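Structural biology now treats backbone shape like a language. To illustrate, our science desk offers a sequence and the tokens encoding its fold:
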Amino acid sequence: MSTYSKELQVAELAVQKASILTKRVFHEKAKGTLSKDDKSPVTIGDFGAQALIIHAIKQAFPNDEIVGEEEASSLRDDIGLRDQIWALVESTVLNESSAEEVLGGPVKNMDAMLDAIDAGNSAGGSKGRIWALDPIDGTKGFLRGGQYAVCLALMVDGDVRVGVLGCPNLPVDDSAPLSANVGTDSTDAEGYGVLFAAVQGQGATSRALSQGGLQPSRSIAMKPVRDITQATFCESVEAGHSSHDDQAAIAKKLGIVKESVRMDSQAKYGSIARGAGDIYLRLPVKASYQEKIWDHAAGDLIVREAGGRVTDALGRRLDFSKGRTLAENKGVVAAPAAVHDQVLKVVMEVLGK
């Protein structure tokens, strides 16, 4: 088997299975939410997806650590919520037995589910094999039927080696251009649901999400930007996540005439990696904010393997070796390698660095 081929297979199937669960939650569970200390919405799908993915990782690679977003203390105290999540976890199954075998079979019982959720407690760092998991990135997008992603990446000694994004509400067609309404009401239309993946040094791919085994994959690449004024740039929907004013000023200075495409989650990374968009800017709203590694690890690798360059607003590579956050980085600038310097120069001018 080629380097990291087993890790890639487990990650893609685990993300696919978790994506199925999240779609079921959206349709069946009336978007139930639970408050969390940072006040971001947390869904039943978050817990269920984390349980399925960590269970699969621990079955295949028992000594690996996981940096996960959720922990199960609230579930241990809330029997009703716990029972809802267990019912979903227990009944979400890939419809090919060989695919289920790769994932180590079903979660045995409710206690095993809670233990799996709690196993996402790694502090991260620069040594060893550590997975970064965001079970539903873009929970507000998820709740509004817009863009969200199930995100999983493997870091070895702080370097991202494998990245997978499940984007249930993006079109399968890699050539479909991004439209302004991509951030809303994209659920379950025919031809939607895509799985992006990359292995360091081996390029990036996309394939349709399915209910069973993995569908055929296609190589993806960023689109050459021959005229920066015609570029499509992506940004977060939430103004609290990135500075819309700074980003608008950068677009204006670059001469970009198209309206920005606002969408939640690492679906932005996948979209620019396959040439549906060109530039992704996420500039800090406040100086003290530190990005979480699970919000960027998979997307960073997928864009770089598709011919892009990803840095922070000062031109530094994103450093995933500093723990659970990108403590040494400020902001994100992702663009095709050939125009990244041009974009970065304007970013620095606008931010007054």
Observations:
- The radius of gyration is 19 Å.
- The first strand starts at residue 33 and ends at 34.
- Residues 261 and 334 are 14 Å apart (CA to CA).
